[in-house]
Amino acid sequence: MASDFVNTDLETLLKRLDLKKYYFSKLSRREMYQIQPYMINEDTKCSPAWQFITEITRYNYRARNIHVEEINKADTSQMSLRERRNLEQKQVNVDLHPMDIVVAVFLCCDPIAKQDLAMHLWGCKLAVPFSIQEMPFEKPSIFTWPLHSIYGHVFQEDGFIEKALVYEKMPCLSFIRFGDNNDLSKSYLINCVIGGTEKVHPMFFHRDSEGSKRIRSNVVEGLIEIGWILPNGSHDKFNGPRIVLNLRGDSALFLRQIEIIGQISTVTVCLCTTADLTKTKPVIRELLLQNSKVVLLILDRRPDEDKVIEYLDTVSSEDQMDAVMKADKTLPGIVQSLIHTIKVMEQKTSKTVKLSDLKTFPANFKVDKRDVWYTEASVRSEEIVSLIEKTDNKGRKRVLLPLQEIYWKQMSKLDRERYEISRYETNIKKRKEKCQKICHKMENVRKDQFFYIKSHGLSAPVQIVLSQLASRNDSYRKIFLRTLKLHLDNLSRLQLQPFYRKYKTLVSKANKAQEHERANIYQELIHLDNTKMSLSFGFEHIMREIGQLYEACESQPSLAKKLPDTTSYKRLPDYAVFILLEGYPLEILDGEANAVPQKWVNSVINQLQASTKEPTASRNIHVISVLGIQSSGKSTFLNTMFGLQFAVSAGRCTRGAYLQVIELNASSYDQLKAKYILLIDTEGLRATDMTSTDTVKHDNEFSTLVIGLSDTTIINLMGENATYLRENLPIVVHAFLRMDLVGLHPRCTIVHHNVDKRNKDKLLEQGRVLEEVLNDLTSRACKMENVPKRSFRDMIEFTIDENTDYIPGLLDGELPMAPVSTGYSGEVKCVRTKLMKILKKSKPYLTGFKPFSIRLEKLWNAIKTDCFVFEFRTTLETEMRLKLDKEYFRIWKDYILDHEELVDRHKDILKTKKSVAIKTFTENMNLEILKLQKKYKKRLENFLSDTEVVSDRLERWKIDLTNSLENQMQKDKSLPSDLEDFKPEVSHQQIERFLNMIEVESKTDSEEKRAFERAWIKWTKEIIAPQLHIIVEDTLQALDTICRGHLYMLKDKEVRQSSLQLFDYTGKSYTNADAVHFGGSRIFSRPNVKNMLECVRLAADREYSIALNEIKQRKLKYTHRHPESILLRTEAEINENIESYDKQNLISIQFKYDLLISAAGSIINDFENMLCGSLGPHKNEFQLLYKKRRTVAEASKLFVDIMFALLQYNLRRIFSRKVFMVLHLYLRTSAFYNIITDSKQGLIGKCIYHIVKHEDDDMLVQYIKSPKVAVSQYLKKKIIPEIFSNLEFKTEILEFVFQTMEEISRKVAAVKSDTEKLGNFLDIVLNEIDTETNYASLTKQILKESAELPVSVATVKDTIDKEKSKYVESNTLDLCQYICQEQAGVIQKCADRICDMTLGCTKTCPFCKEICKYSLNHPDKHECFVHRPDGVGGGHWVETNALCYETCTEHYENHTLFKFKGDWIAFKDYEKVFNTWDIVSSQEKEPHLIWKWILVNKYRLLSAVPGVRLPDNLPVAWKNISKDQALYSLEEIFELFV
After folding, report:
1. 1447-1452 contacts, C-beta under 8 A, 24 or more apart
2. Burial of 754 (0-12, 13-18, 19+ CB in 10 A)
3. Which residues of 1408-1531 form beta strands (DSSP E)?
4. DSSP state, 330?
């Protein structure tokens, strides 16, 4: 468009509204939603245009009611004469109408902003500009693109369905007028027709609307506005939705607009007087020419009816036009008569219109969507939707979104397991090993993800999106992104709507069900939600896939450069930033995988920081988030407050956490000291798709993350229920106390939805009580974590009086025509103003986007690391659990000490008693132990019974602790029978091992003594290793048990390298941070802290030494009680001394746990020294033994090598003879067999399902020829992967190999002498093993020269024992591969055997060749499940190539003939030649859907006759059957579970 105006009226209007610059450069949505100065300070004035934009984008339906009298009225009192005259010449004496503002803003918006404006207008149920004549001599522009964002609730039999209105076919009602109607406003009349005359909603602005002026606007005249009528299902004036058009101005002057109305209008209502009838003729004729029915509303008080009838007869027929007389009717009477006449005229036509269809408008119409950008964006979006729709629902995401659905979810699950191991694995070493394994798995999954991209490329939808982002300019990209989002939203609405209906039914059913029935219903609800999630496919999923593409490529940057689809993967964050700034949320927490894609989020945030190009000082940001229970209106609240695009409909609830960026207008920088506000929308808490325990943990973690990230968190509450505040917020505070990130100091504001402000005083009183409760719970949390006492406000800034707001209901009326309530939008505006004032007073915590991503990473890692506190519903629960654990360990410690004392007291007596008296003494001692256990059980029982009940979990915890004590005491039911001293055991094989070690050391050191010493050190470590391993495990398990509530503090601690003697408290801060400001104080900043730490350390060291010496003095054999006893006593001493010295809670809880870690390290080191020391007295004996050893080592090694080679050769040969029985037996007893062979019907159905789903044409051809052979081939395909995947079969093979190895071991053990000649030894082994004669002879011949070498029998035995497991494992894998590669015939034989046993009778129908449905040797005639169409096997009619689509049963009924041995026989007489078959009794006359699909899609493949074709009379429905429909039908009829 040229940069010069042709429309001077429009130019003048834009000047007066200060919008002229936007007419050509256009107002973007990014600028539209900026925070303006008047949003921060209500006293700041703004132009009427911006006032309208701000109000309408915040859903205030009074946004048009703007008083504009003083616009451009400058103060001229101080001006000179010439200045005043010049100003008056520039000003135009044309007044301004509120609708001028609507039109001007609409024209100045870019396409995306136009669409947003239309969406907000309809959200307020206000009319939207549809056609505007911008230039006087050009055709009016028709704006259909903005209407695509408009959705409405269309009533159907089963309730409301939300749909995009432009895609719905519906009648159109248009209203026009002739002349000036001073008595009746047309726009007001339309509003009455739509909503009734009682409470009239101003959809169309009229002369009596607030702010209206009785003037004519040259800009607004000729405007066509659009609205809709949506019935609510009860007392409806119309039986379905209607489009409503309103032409402003005298229609006689706007024939171009009349042409548009006539084209799409079903019925046009014309308001006029009898005096105006003559001038209406050109307009009426144009309307009738376009097949629009016309209703005249004659406005005269005393109309000349004869004149009107004469006019009607002259202009049109009775079916085309009618009239309604206003006369002396009241407004309700006029509306009623008008509606009646409209409905009568509608019955005479079937004309409807679909606004999204460009064919609705002739080619000469100027329609915005005909622009190439819109059409191309629509084509690409529809292509993506088509790909989604064509993909099977069940595996849709795995096919189209494999990077997230397969690999990302797997990685997220592994990551959660890595952090949750501390809950289950009590051994730190094992925990570390498992974590390393998981990390290795995660690396492999990430590699697999990358190589999947390399081998398969990106899915088609993602490729299309990236190609559109990469190759086009910003304007097109904006249109494409919006078009794609709308298309995906429409798809979600269409596909997910049935789930919501079913969900509603189940909820209703649950409310009426008995208690025992609800569990099953809730399981159904969970299953329904999971299914819904699997079908849900939105723009956020595509962005998630792009994020995973980036993370995968980042993991292999050098290889990623070579990928054809990802050559520019480094640009992906650029695209994401563009998308984010265009108003589409960035997912920072994946709600489906429950994980943060950290690399992707960091890269996008960093790129966002780089793209702002602002000085660091102006990059400050504020972060605002919203929390609340599910479906509490969080997203709607944020959208209303800031005009955003968080998902509120489209059938998909928010899952996870999403980020949007709001920019501050340049004039607002100084006021808020920041340039951006980050808004975080979150999924609802207390989700129905989680179990109670999962919900508690999820909600606590989620709340901690969101509040920790934000400067201000808005907590959404429905009604007056403040349960969330009492339960979850204290847990968040507790979590903050346990984190290193205690420098966080967020604030909260509470918003009560659906609450009348009149209840404010009552709620404030409740709030003050709540504030006291929160303070008390915070104080309790501080006590639990051993930190100075703080109030709730010290942790989270919140004051009940200042930070609580009350919001009325969202809608003003009932669906579907209810607008957003002005009370709702008004109160939301007040909350926003208050929020802006808070931000104005406070300093931003973050100085840019990058610190935000750093905070996110730290918070998320901290949450994953400490999982203990999140498992509790309330702080009181946490306190109670810790109290129970503390007393339990005190009782257990005392019991262990008493038990050890009892054993020690009678140890010497037990060792010296004679065997005769031993039994009686032992029985008495066991009774004493039982008496001791009873005493401590009673003590625990008394404590538990006196515990205050603060949670319904208490009873379960009582049972757990009681059972735990019982299980621990079970190990002490009697006195230990073995009271030997504390020392390791040494076997003959271990002695032999030591002598071998000396020889190895002698090779590197000729000095025999040094070689012996080195071997001795290594050997003693090996000897004690098994016992030391047990000691380490017992110690770490005891440590983890004692530290149950603070396991996160043990993370990455090296226990083996710690000790009390080396413990250093000066290198780390072990003091608590100051309250309120959380300053990081240095360790010695306070008096006497150093002395306190030293005193506690010395006390712990002293108690540890006493406990260890008592164990040494008792000289008892080691038990798992020893480390536990020492740690419990040490912990009790630490607690006692901290309580004694640290009255102000200055010492952090980390000090206690680091001391316990050091004590655990000391236990391991001291017990290791005790074990090594016990072998010292035997050192000389080993030196003497070594001197006797020589000569036999070489021959022994040679023999063992030969024996293993011999066994490996024979294993395959022997196993081949029994593999069939092993394999068949396994398959018969496996779960796989039960699934495959559940029934004949099921097996056949699964085979056909496989053929069709995978389009296995070879197997299909085989099935047509012989179902039995095809089923056998199908089974073989199933068996081969099962061999490798199933552990049971591998176990079967492993047992075979192991038994063989055990047999050899027994033969070797049968040799009685210490040494034997190699030749003789070999003869013994060969005679005992089932070997081939030739192989044995050759072996003897090769070894003839070595036959005289002596072989050590002990060495052979030791080597076999050592190598046995490795040998068994390698040969098991070898046999598995051998079976599949070399034993294909055996597998086929197994498949045949299973096939025979399952299929039974394999006779086939003599006509269609379908298999009999009965078992083997059945007494009755053969029958089929379903007969096939004859054409499937190539059957066709004689003298034609048209395939026969009828089944055998239909042939019988149709009296068809068939040829048998040259003779034609009627089907009704088929039993004369096939008397063993019963075809007539088949229940299904028509072929099954699956055979219809096969015939239509595979007939060329299946027919042996060339040139065959489908018959002309083939039912059309057959050709419309999709593969998915056929498979689904097959599942039903064969009762498959695939």
Report:
1. 1447/1408, 1447/1482, 1447/1484, 1447/1485, 1447/1486, 1447/1487, 1448/1405, 1448/1407, 1448/1408, 1448/1479, 1448/1482, 1449/1479, 1449/1480, 1449/1482, 1449/1484, 1449/1485, 1450/1485, 1450/1486, 1451/1407, 1452/1479, 1452/1480
2. middle
3. 1457-1460, 1463-1466
4. -
Give the global pTM: 0.67
Residue type, 687: A
Taking the C-alpha atoms of residue 904 and residue 925, their distance in angstroms, rounded to an integer, is 12
Give me the amino acid identity at 1410. E
Q: Return d(Cα 1419, Cα 1421) in angstroms, integer.
A: 7
Q: What is the DSSP letter of 1442?
A: B
C-alpha angle 29-35-39 in degrees, rounded to nearest 5: 130
Alpha-carbon torsion angle 1411, 1412, 1414, 1418, nearest 10 = -130
- Hey, how many other C-beta atoms are within 10 angstroms of the C-beta on 1520? 9
CA 1218 to mean position of chain CA atoms:
49
- d(CA 114, CA 43) in angstroms, rounded, equals 29
Distance of CA 609 to the CA centre of its chain: 28
**In this structure, how many other beta carbons lie within 10 angstroms of the beta carbon of residue 996?**
16
Q: At CB < 8 A and 24+ separation, what contacts does 914-923 make?
A: 922/974, 922/975
Tokens 């995906």 identify what position?
488
Dump pLDDT digits (tens) for 448-466.
999 999 888 899 999 999 9
Within 977-1007, residue ranges assigned H as helices are 988-1004
Which two structure tokens, joined as six digits, stand for 1487? Answer: 């072929």
Residues 6+ apart with CB under 8 A from 503: 525, 528, 529
Give the tens place of pLDDT for each residue, 3-39: 556 678 888 888 888 888 898 888 998 899 888 888 8
Of the candidates 1288, 1270, 1285, 1298, the residue with the CA atom closest to the CA atom of residue 1223: 1288
The span from the first CA to the last CA of the chain, in angstroms, equals 60
| Structural contact between residues 222 and 133, judged by C-beta atoms closer than 8 angstroms | yes
| 967/961 Cα distance (integer angstroms) | 10
Bridge partners (DSSP) listed for residue 174: 245, 268
Instruction: Assess contact for 1002 and 1015: CB atoms under 8 A.
Output: no
- For residue 719, the SS3 value is coil
Task: State the pLDDT at residue 1439.
Answer: 65
Mean pLDDT of 910-937: 69
> How confident is the model at residue 202, as a pLDDT?
92
What would the two tokens of residue 1244 be? 């056949």
Mean pLDDT: which of 262-266, 395-399, 653-657, 803-807 is highest?
262-266
The contacts of residue 140 (CB under 8 Å, 6+ apart) are: 131, 132, 133, 222, 224, 256, 257, 260, 366
Q: Are 324 and 334 in contact (CB under 8 A)?
A: yes
SS3 1464: strand
Q: For the chain, what is the mean pLDDT?
A: 78
Q: Locate 592 and state its tokens.
A: 């489906």
Q: In what side-by-side order are the strands of the sheet with 621-628?
A: 586-590, 656-663, 676-682, 621-628, 712-718, 747-753, 804-807
Alpha-carbon distance of 222 to 129, in angstroms, equals: 11
Calpha distance 333→303 (Å, rounded): 16
According to DSSP, the residues that pair with 322 across neighbouring strands are 295
Using the 8-state DSSP alphabet, how is residue 980 labeled? -
Strand-strand pairing, 242-250 and 172-177: parallel
Q: Please give the structure tokens belonging to residue 1160.
A: 């655990």
Q: With residue 798 as reference, give the H or E element that holds it.
A: none
Give me the DSSP letters along 1285-1353.
H-HHHHHHHHHHHHHHHHHHHHHHHT--SSEEEHHHHHHHHHHHS---HHHHHHHHHHTGGGTTSEEEH
Which secondary-structure segment (H or E) carries 92? none
For 972, residues 6+ apart whose C-beta sits below 8 A from its C-beta are: 899, 929, 933
Please list the alpha-helical segments (H only) found in 755-821: 760-784, 792-795
